[in-house]
Write a structure and sequence with these properties.
This is Ig-like domain-containing protein. By secondary structure, this protein is mainly beta. The chain has 1 helix and 9 strands, in the order E-H-E-E-E-E-E-E-E-E. The protein is globular and about 45 Å long.
Length: about 130
């Protein structure tokens, strides 16, 4: 819900890697607040469990939809420029959303709009 000051509530859900216990597989919820017109930073837990493993694909969904709204393809051997690894499938996010896989992986939405308020799910696929 939007407050009088224009603060949006976005909820992130992280799907944890399959090798964790059944209880942990359910994931973790985190509430993220952002001011309308500014930047929303939606974190995604992509920590690799094994040093020989690596992140292959990161997918973002909203409100339990079956099709991702955003994907980041990090699979090696693909002839892609770095900017082509990102695919935005929700037209409203075009030009405003980007996944940054760095030290604190997160999807950044700037400027965040009232229509961006949703439950976001981040799914990470690993090589192993």
């Amino acid at each position: 819900m939007l407050s009088p000051r224009g603060i949006l509530a976005l909820v992130c859900y992280f799907l944890l890697p399959h090798s964790l216990t059944h209880a942990a597989k359910k994931g973790v919820w985190r509430r993220v607040e952002a001011v309308s017109g500014r930047e929303a930073v939606l974190p995604c837990e992509v920590g690799v469990l094994d040093s020989s493993d690596m992140v292959f694909v990161v997918l973002w969904y909203t409100n339990g939809e079956k099709e991702p709204i955003y994907s980041y393809d990090n699979r090696p051997g693909r002839l892609q420029a770095p900017e082509d690894r990102h695919t935005i499938k929700k037209q409203l996010l075009e030009g405003r959303a980007v996944f940054r896989p760095g030290q604190v992986p997160a999807m950044h939405i700037k400027p965040v709009l009232m229509t961006d308020q949703a439950n976001y799910t981040c799914r990470v696929d690993f090589r192993i």
